[in-house]
Amino acid sequence: AYFSQRLIEEQRQLSRSSDVTSSSGEAGAASAVADDNVLEQITARITSKLKDELKKELAKEEKEMIQQKDRQQGEMECFLAGELEQATCPICYELMKAPKNTPTLLFPCGHTFCIECLNSHIKLNSRGTCPYCRVKIQNQAPNLQLQQLIDGFAGRKEEIIKKVEKVTRDAAESADSTNSFSLRNVSLSDREQLEDYRREWRTVSMRYRIYTNEAKDCDAEIKEMESKLEATRIVRKHLHGELEDAFKRMQKLQEEIDFIESQLHQQKEKEKDLDADIMAKRKRMNLVNTTKDSLEMERAKIRLLVEHSIPDDVDVFLES
Ligand SMILES: [Zn+2]
Ligand SMILES: [Zn+2]
C-alpha cells in the first residue's frame, strides 16, 4: 500500500508539472510534442526505478517476515521446552519422564503426578484421594500426550535457545531499525527470569498445597487413632474389672472345693471308724454265739437229767 501510494503521488507530481508546461504556453506544437516525449521517458524511468525499489522492498519484507516467523517459532519451541522442563512431578520435582516417572493422570480431577509418587501416596493415604485437590481417585492412566511432549522437547532447551538466538541475531543484522522487532526491546533474559519466577511460584504453591493436605490428613488420622486409643483404654479397664470378678469367683469356688474336699475326708474317716466298729462287733457276736451254743448244750443236758427223774412235769419244774 505504501509503495502504490508513492507511485500515485509521483504520477500526480508529473502531471502537475506537465500542466505547468502546457499552461505556460505559447511555445508551440513542436515543443509540446518534445515535452510529451520527455514526459513519457521520465515516466518510464521513474516507473522502472520504482518497480525495482518495490521488488527490493518486497523481497526484504518477505525475508524479514520469514525471519520473524522463524524467531517466533523458535521462541515458541523455547517456551514449550521451558514449560515442559517444568513438567515436573509436584511431589518429587523430578521431570515426569517414562518409565520411572511416567506422568499419570487422575480421574476425575485431572491432576497429574509421576507414577512413583502416586503409588507411594496411595499406599500411605487410606482414603485414596488426589494429593492436590483431595477428590477421590476413581481411576488413573498414563498421560500419554504429555509424555510424548516431554520426550520430544524436554532436555532440548539449550539447543532451542541457541537456535532462537541465531535467528534473532540474523534479523538484527539485516533489519532497518524502523519497522521490526520493537518487541525485542524487552530483553530475553528479563522475560525468561520473570517466566522462571512464575513457574517456580506455581510449582512451590502446588507442592505447598499437597503438603498442607497431607498435614490435614495426618491430623485427622491422628485424631481418629486417638479416639480409638481412648476406646481401647475403656475396654481394657472393663476387662480388668471382669478379671477381678473372675478371680473373686474363683476364690469362692476354691473355698467351696476346699470345703467339699474336707467333707469328703471326714466322711472317709467316719467310714473307716464304722468299718472297724463293725469288725469288732462281729468278733464279739461270734464270741457270744459260741458261748450261747455251749449254754444251749448245757441246758439240754440238764433237761435230759431232769426228764429222767420226773418225765411228766419237766417243763413246769424247770420254768418255776
Ligand atoms: Zn514424583
Ligand atoms: Zn486432583
TrEMBL record:
Which molecular-function annotations from GO does this UniProt entry contain?
single-stranded DNA binding; ubiquitin protein ligase activity; zinc ion binding
- Enumerate the UniProt keywords alphabetically: Coiled coil, Metal-binding, Zinc, Zinc-finger
What residue ranges carry the coiled-coil annotation? 44-75, 208-277
Q: Which Gene3D superfamilies match?
A: Zinc/RING finger domain, C3HC4 (zinc finger)
User: What spans are recorded as compositionally biased (Low complexity)?
Assistant: 22-32
What SMART domains is this protein classified in?
A: RING
Q: Give the PROSITE patterns listed for this entry.
A: ZF_RING_1, ZF_RING_2
- Identify the InterPro entries for this entry: Rad18 (IPR039577), Znf-RING_euk (IPR027370), Znf_RING (IPR001841), Znf_RING/FYVE/PHD (IPR013083), Znf_RING_CS (IPR017907)
According to its UniProt entry, the protein's GO biological process terms are: DNA damage tolerance; protein monoubiquitination
Q: Region Disordered: list its residue ranges.
A: 1-32
Q: Name one Pfam family in it.
A: zf-RING_UBOX
Domain RING-type intervals: 89-134
Q: What is this protein called?
A: RING-type domain-containing protein
What organism is listed for this UniProt entry? Hanusia phi
Q: What is the lineage of its organism?
A: Eukaryota, Cryptophyceae, Pyrenomonadales, Geminigeraceae, Hanusia
